[in-house]
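Job type: complex structure
Entries:
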Amino acid sequence: MSPLLAQVEIRDRSQDTCVSDNGLCPGWIADNFDRYVDPFFQHVLLTVVAVAIGFVIASTLAVIAYRRRWLINPVTQVTGVLYTIPSVAAFFLLLPITGRGFLTATVALVSYVLLIIFRNVLTGLDNVPEETKDAGRGMGLTDRQLLWRVELPLALPEIMAGLRIAVTTTVGLATLAFFAGAGGLGEQIFADINFKSNVVVAGGLAVLLAAVLDAVILLTQRAITPWTRAVAAR
Amino acid sequence: MQNSDSAHTSGPSARPQAATLEFREATKQYPGQDEPAVDKLSLTVPAGDICVLVGPSGCGKTTAMRMVNRMIDITAGDILLDGQSVRERRPAELRRQIGYAIQQIGLFPHLSVADNIGTVPRLLGWDRERIRARVDELLELVSLDPAETRGRYPAQLSGGQRQRVGVARALAVDPPLMLMDEPFGAIDPINRERLQNEFLRLQREIRKTVVFVTHDIDEAIKMGDRIAIMQKGGHLSQYAPPAELLMYPANPFVEDFVGADRALKRLALQHVRDVDLWKAPLVRAGEPVAEARAKLADSEVPYPLLIDGDGRPVGWLSERALMGERVTDELRSRATPLLEMEDVLRDALSDLLQEEAQYGPVVDERGAIVGVLSIEILSQALKTDPEEVPSGADAL
């Protein structure tokens, strides 16, 4: 169960010289790739669920604070404190409450992305030009219509930028989720942290995941904000 | 189409044309300030007129305008739209029936031109086909090519095009009242003049009641059927048609604000066709000199004007042209400046001064002579009673 036990297991299983020399062994990787599949999908799940929940909470807070400005400071302070708690410490702090497992890891990861997303959504909303809002109100849009039809769409570039930071950070932090007993690629990395092939594959998958998720968000952003690429045609 | 018409107007009238707007001692007092921003403003804008609110910054003109659609709520008094108090209306619903155009335009950057213009129609539940047709109609109304423009984003338009789209958007549901806050303020002078003229042309077609805010007295004189001059503290100094304002300023503030050249500004309100032109001594080459001399004696203009076979002025004849039996075509000078009936008197005066001429031949649209405008006629026009002078928008 413990990382230390697992280390012994990986090393002992293979007898070829590449492995005993601690090199980068394609043969070993091909034979052992199966062991990374489940952790990888655990990692994806942890990241996506944490960012999704964090996004819902933080953007709701941002929208509320956008109208009720006095909320900005308290929300920033609370999410700021959550942001500064080292995640490993957060896992252990949560253990008595939520126990070991997915829930604990998710709660810690969510608390970490709140500040990032909150700030970006708020900045995006604040950056909507005053005259655009004035025109919208003057034309008879209600506050809610203004929010959904004008303010949130115009805040999308900043919101999506926040999501990208949140996702890449969460992929990184989720490698520590095994401390909370939630698995993920981190479990594989620490299973034999001295074995190059193992670290490269597990770590590489994490990096790849971050890059892919980042690209997905970027492409989504380009698709839903076509006006940002509309340049003067004259 | 027919049942969607009912969604178009939720008000009592089926098809709003123009509304009468009445300020009744409308006041805006911000808490913690000594002076009200707008102080007991009372004035009535007749349906279909352009009322210009003009004054120095801080005079409350924009505040007064924004009180109409409740962007700013009045603290005392009332504002009536076709007899109904705006205070009884829900702000969003009221605003959808009032066109709104501001200096910064405020187009939605993330929406195409068509979607910008279609915003209020969509709020009112028009069907897609009707919105599309209306968008194209409006784009043509503001002189933009629908096919080329409707799919663009605001960032892809020039300043003047954006301003036109802004006006089209304000007109989308054919509102009975338009509020325009320095709508041409951010445009370069040449395009501003063009947009002003276009708007006046448009206004002759659509005949909306318009509240137009500006700090520029020249724009006010040009655009307004009636001008409300406001001064600091939100006081109304004078409310009158432009000609009356220029002829009889109510107090030193108005006199100062309309400027020392207010006599000249009055010329901007009249056109060549509004004054009695002089009859020119018209002669043709080859005509007997005796006849020419008789015409000359009969006219207030001391020089014979040579015209061609189609009655187009060629030039002023010299003494030598009348020396022989028959008139020759020896010219003293070309027939410049050539003026037209639609020219504004101020521009005509400017043309005369520029050419160092005392007399300017006036021609019709085919270029044939109809009379002569002289410096004397212009100085007469300055003494005309304002009642006889048409106001800015009517005159155009």
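Summary: The first strand of chain B starts at residue 21 and ends at 28. Residues 40 and 135 of chain B are 39 Å apart (CA to CA).
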